[in-house]
Amino acid sequence: MFILETIRLGLGNLRRHALRSVLTCLGVILGVAAVIVVVAIGEGNKQSALRDIAALGATNIIVRSSKPPDAASSAQARTFLSRYGITYEDARRLEAALPDAMAVVPLKAVGSEISRGAFRTNSQCFGTMPALASVANLRVATGGRYLSDHDIESRASVAVLGAETARQLFPARDALGQDFRVDQQVLRVIGVLEEQGLAGGAGGALVGRDLNRDVHMPVTTAERQFGDVIQRRTSGTSTNEEIQLSEVYVTAPSTAAVSQVAHRVERLMEVGHPGLEDVQIVVPWELLENARRAMLVWNVMLVAIAAISLLVGGIGIMNIMLASVTERTREIGIRRALGATRKHIILQFLVETGSLSAVGGLMGILLGVGASLGVGVIVPMIQKWPMFKGAFGGGFTLEPIITTWSIVVSFAVAAAVGLIFGMYPAIVASRKDPVVALRHD
Hints:
Elements: H1 2-16, H2 18-24, H3 26-55, E1 60-65, H4 69-73, E2 79-83, H5 88-97, E3 103-110, E4 113-116, E5 119-122, E6 125-128, H6 132-135, H7 149-154, E7 158-161, H8 163-169, E8 179-182, E9 185-192, H9 201-207, E10 215-218, H10 219-226, E11 229-234, E12 237-242, E13 247-251, H11 258-272, E14 279-282, H12 284-327, H13 329-337, H14 342-383, H15 404-430, H16 434-439
Parallel strand pairs: 2-12, 6-10, 7-9
Antiparallel strand pairs: 1-13, 1-14, 3-6, 3-13, 4-5, 4-8, 7-10, 8-9, 11-12
Helix pairs in contact: 1-14, 3-9, 3-12, 3-14, 3-15, 5-11, 12-14, 12-15, 14-15
């Protein structure tokens, strides 16, 4: 009964000074909201990055041809032929030396231009094997199909388009069964890939291109119709690059074996490429683990920064409660004279500070959740405004994910802050001499 009466008195005193109570717990409100928002944004970015990296295949090792510095410097020449990158011999060596690998899938970049009618774009066309679909987690839209073993054996003039390329080449019709050109070679569309999430972000940076703009044909067709020389024209300069294979996907038997297989791949590639100057080895699994660790550190830092607002809020509560003790000195004296003990006075003030921090915590949760949801809706809208076009990175996305732990932890910390910072004013109030307090005006 005494506890209930103490709570009633404490809450009644807060209601009598409603505006002051709201301003007092403003720091707690903003602190809790800040924790929830920054964690939601950090978690959303983390999940987006991890999803992009995982989409490359957690057990894949990607070996990629990379133009060496000396080849790039020779671009001053009007016309030249540079040879670099992965060779057919490298692919055969990898396949023979890695019998435990689930797959060794080559990609061969071909052509310089993709066209249909008036539409023309720089080539992102690759010859590859049917196994790439499972290795790279590619899915074909309903009605179409991916490359088959028969396509490889017959050197069929067929292709599978990325979602964006299909939209641009065939904006008003179904792409299936339609013809288009890669340079002067005519290919028929047998399938369209579903939208890939690697257009931007971590995954797109690793792939080095937008997968939605890819064109895949049988590797045998690519070898027969295009050869190994790719001609590129930029700013009046014609460059010829002889690249036998642009990429090779090596799939380890499990995630536990990825690091070991990647090390073996690196040693095998060094045989024909000392120093790996013209090849690059990407291991999504290692990048995935690094991203997880980096995001964990980032989240801890963000929460620590946001927690400063809670600390400021706690100091504000303590200051206001100390002022309240001075204002209510006579009240404290009357209560002590009527039999209230020091414990009763401490409890009354702790009820008030606890209520301030609890109400502030609840309001902060509402504000934080609302702001997190609002950011996910408003930012994409702002990106579409003409004045902000180009202000955000091309792969910039913001998908806040509200986590339960951030709500629970922020509220618990807010409540603890209120009680801890309210303890000192409560003790000061309880130690006032009743006689002196009664004489206070």
